[in-house]
Design brief:
Blueprint: H1 3-27, H2 31-47, H3 58-78, H4 87-100, H5 107-120, H6 123-134, H7 139-146, H8 150-170
Helix pairs in contact: 1-2, 1-3, 1-4, 2-3, 3-4, 5-8, 6-8, 7-8
């Protein structure tokens, strides 16, 4: 790889790091595994950068590398009797692609919008989101900590996600759900 290509690669990676980490975190809960998959994705992208077609979105290419690594991770777990639904990866990719398609916004702008939406949540919902997504706590553990039922925690998380999605929709960053076809 030439020095100029290396410089371009480094800039592109910096621009896409937050997006890629978000994608991997959406599919893998263990932070150590997330970091490992991210590092391996970057190494693979570095080695294969000459194969990248600059006429295609880099974000999609990077997520494709990460997707294969996530699948390999879950395949190794499957040998140890763990199960993973591959359709989750496809759903996350579709959602990430729809977010990517909004022109004029950088990924940090989109994260800033999410942060604003998080701030608008009532403190009780924000706390549950933080415990579940930031602190990687299981719903049973959160329920025990907050002295409530696991089902109540799941309902609150569902409510918080719904409010976040609505806030992001209002900001034009989250597509409306596709209408169901009536038969």
């Amino acid at each position: 790889m030439h020095r100029r290509d290396k410089d371009v690669f480094e800039v592109l990676v910096r621009e896409h790091t937050a997006m890629l980490l978000t994608y991997i975190r959406a599919t893998v809960r263990d932070r150590g595994i997330v970091d490992d998959i991210f590092q391996e994705t970057m190494l693979t992208a570095w080695r294969r950068f000459g194969d990248y077609d600059p006429n295609r979105p880099l974000a999609h290419w990077l997520r494709g590398i990460a997707r294969r690594l996530v699948l390999a991770h879950y395949a190794s777990l499957r040998r140890r009797h763990a199960y993973y639904d591959e359709s989750l990866l496809e759903a996350v990719e579709q959602r990430m692609s729809s977010i990517d398609s909004h022109t004029g916004d950088t990924w940090p702008d989109k994260i800033a919008a999410l942060d604003l939406c998080l701030e608008r949540l009532p403190e009780s919902l924000r706390q549950r989101i933080r415990l579940f997504y930031t602190d990687d706590r299981e719903t049973a553990e959160i329920a025990e900590q907050l002295n409530t039922s696991r089902e109540a925690i799941k309902k609150r998380l569902q409510r918080a996600r719904s409010l976040l999605a609505e806030c992001l929709r209002q900001k034009g960053l989250f597509p409306l759900p596709s209408p169901e076809v009536q038969s």
